[in-house]
Amino acid sequence: MNSTVNYIKEWQQALQLEILHLKKYGSTKYLVSNGHLLTDDGSFTYYFETGSSIKIPVGSLVRLEWGGIKQDGRILSSEGKSIIIVFDRSLGDMIGEAFLYHDPWELLEQLIIRLDEIKRSKRKRLRVKRLMDPSMPQKHPLNEKQSSVKELYARSKFNPVTFVWGPPGTGKTYTLARTVANHYLQDKKVLVLSHSNQAVDVLMAEISAFIKKKDRFKEGDVLRYGSQIGESLASHDDIVTGQLLGKHEPTLFKEKEELGEEKRLLKHDLAGSFSKRETDQLIEIEKKLSKVLEKIRQKEIQFVKEAKVIGTTLAKAANDETVYQKEYDLVILDEASMAYVPQVAFAAALSKHIIVCGDFKQLPPIASARDSLVKLWLKEDIFHRAGVAQSVEEGELHRHLFLLKEQRRMHPDISAFTNRAVYNNFVGDHKSVAISREGIMLAEPFANKAAALLDTSLSGEYCITERTSHSRMNLWQLLLSFQLIHEAYVGGSRSIGYVAPYRAQANLMEKLLDDLYDKERQTADIIAATVHRFQGSEREMMIFDTVDSYPQNRAGMLLTGRESERLINVAITRTKGKFVHVCDTSFVNKHVYRSKTLRQLVDHQIQNDQIVPKKDIGKWVKHQHPKLQWMHARKLGDFQEDIESTKQEMVIAVPDLNSLSEEWQQYLMKRNPAVKLTIISAKRNPDINSDHFICSPVSFSFIIFDKRVIWLGLPVESNNRVQPPFIAARLDSQIMADELLSQFKKSE
């Protein structure tokens, strides 16, 4: 049997398994309320209010659940804080509160249908075969002195499949855009695809700019097709279907706007009354609007038919016959390493030639179902599945793999590690990058260092697991990282990323930034997230908080497992001029093998004199934040002031209550008698009285006054794994106090 047919069958099985998993476990869930029946003329139309604006495409399948009832429906309207859904049976006149589920599996079902169409076409099967087995000889003329653009143009003109390996900062967008433009100038039809709207926008903006620069731009030839258009195209609205429609069909466009406004006002009135007259009016407007939208749709189809270069997402391409029923001279698939293999195959089947561009050293596609077929085809990228990545591991480039080998993003002191350890010395630095990043390198924190390792060894045992999710968090490293953000901001940086491998830690930093840095974030791009949020973006400075430390007895799989090299690579390569790694090196040296990327990163940074030891905190902390202060833990003047000014409650947590010194017992006794004392520890000490006792193991000591002021690192003698200098942190944050206390169950 044809091996391509076997591939397709396995892909369809894998997609079906993922759909079943999503139907059972995974959906985007919204709370809807105040549901009212609008019409019951064969089908049943309901109006719901939503807490926030929900954008679900009209026509999408949804599921409504309330009580024990589940019912599938279809979106008729989703605008503002209300939504209208059509069901094929009655759910009663009113529904108080319900949950609405919207699933991405519809898009996967469309992909299964597209794969069926490929199966029936000999021409399309051949295109997929070449993608999966790129063993055909090279047909492009060889010229070593060619620029990247000229070589990629030649490869994509003469070879059916060209894989482009684009490591971070190597000019991927620049090269792809000019390759597309050159094909366009030769009157070729090109389809530009990616899994994300943002990536499509960026590439289409670059293509448009280049063609305009050549003075060869013709309106309608270059088209960004889709509804989710971002800011990247603000200065290129002459390639956006919606804007072209407004220009060429102003009456139709105006009618749509007027009906939309009429509907919005009526829905606002409807929320309070639900009179039959207003309900009938709304349904009438919906009918008129659907006719106008259908006319608009037909005009959009005409735009797509006439365009020479079309940019859209993989999902829309597989879902929209206007795109997938056309034949193209070239398909460009950007960020292919994050696309499912069946999606790449679908893209390849649309054209005689395809450029598959991505970086297989970055994050792979994401799928949820646990099954060997899903793991094989939906959780690994096309570069690995087509055998192209394996040649790199053997020290050579596959004949159909084109490498962009000069990076211009990172200062060479940052890229030195990834160039060698991740990219096997295939990638080097452009000569201009050291000079262009010098300004960021010279700024605080750690002026004159582009890469630094902030070592938290022997500061205490702060790495705990969040109580509900079991995701790891480390409050000490969190506060140090916040201090780094503050130093960078005061030093002039307005582009800062904080990345952690664990969602609990990233979420905690977001809460801390919301609490203490809300004003600063209005004028600066400061984001805290896990690695997936950062893929495809860049910042002036990145802080990589590895979180893992004692009392954990092993490093987490995110930092040592199969995907750890990719995760760490993305964390490092987002930055331009300053990379700060916050890490407990003593923990890593004991619990992580030398062969692992994390250990190699630590060793590299130590060998290259990038380490900043704990004792240097007084040198690099130059700007104390009003709500976060660092001080010597033996100098307790400020602490005594907090005891004296506390009005209601004092919470003290110690790993071993018996280790509490006489001096500290005296502090507890000196408090105002009206102040309640809560003690958190693994076991009681009969000599120390308290109003409340929470029997819970705790690995580090802390004190909280009036549920807002946290002292971390006190009492010193009760802290485990601490060596001088003894540092304490004082944080004034009710949100963080609540978060910390929520980790310990109340008991008596």
Describe this entry's structure for a reader.
The protein has 30 helices and 30 strands. By secondary structure, the protein is of the alpha/beta class. It folds into five domains: 27-102, Translation factors (Elongation Factor Tu (Ef-tu), domain 3, Beta Barrel); 109-225 and 307-371 and 392-403, P-loop containing nucleotide triphosphate hydrolases (Rossmann fold), CATH 3.40.50; 248-300; 407-620, P-loop containing nucleotide triphosphate hydrolases (Rossmann fold); 628-741, Endonuclease Chain A (Endonuclease, Chain A, 2-Layer Sandwich). It has a seven-stranded parallel β-sheet with strand order 9-10-8-11-12-7-13, with helices on both faces. Strand 11, helix 12 (341-348) and strand 12 form a beta-alpha-beta unit. The longest helix has 31 residues, at 276-306. The mean pLDDT is 92.
Question: What is the fold's blueprint, element by element?
Answer:
Blueprint: H1 3-24, E1 28-40, E2 44-50, E3 61-66, E4 69-79, E5 82-87, E6 94-102, H2 105-119, H3 122-132, H4 148-158, E7 161-165, H5 172-185, E8 190-194, H6 197-213, E9 222-224, H7 241-248, H8 250-270, H9 276-306, E10 309-313, H10 314-319, H11 321-324, E11 330-333, H12 341-348, E12 354-358, H13 372-377, H14 382-385, H15 388-393, E13 401-403, E14 406-407, H16 412-422, E15 428-429, H17 433-436, H18 438-442, E16 451-455, E17 463-465, E18 472-474, H19 475-490, E19 495-499, H20 503-516, H21 518-521, E20 525-529, H22 531-534, E21 539-545, H23 557-560, H24 564-573, E22 575-583, H25 585-591, H26 597-607, E23 611-612, H27 617-620, E24 628-632, H28 637-645, E25 649-653, H29 662-670, E26 676-681, E27 692-695, E28 702-705, E29 709-712, E30 727-732, H30 734-741
Parallel strand pairs: 7-12, 7-13, 8-10, 8-11, 9-10, 11-12, 14-15, 16-22, 16-23, 19-20, 19-21, 21-22, 25-26, 26-27
Antiparallel strand pairs: 1-2, 1-6, 2-5, 3-4, 3-6, 4-5, 17-18, 24-30, 25-28, 28-29, 29-30
Helix pairs in contact: 1-2, 2-12, 4-5, 5-6, 7-8, 8-9, 16-24
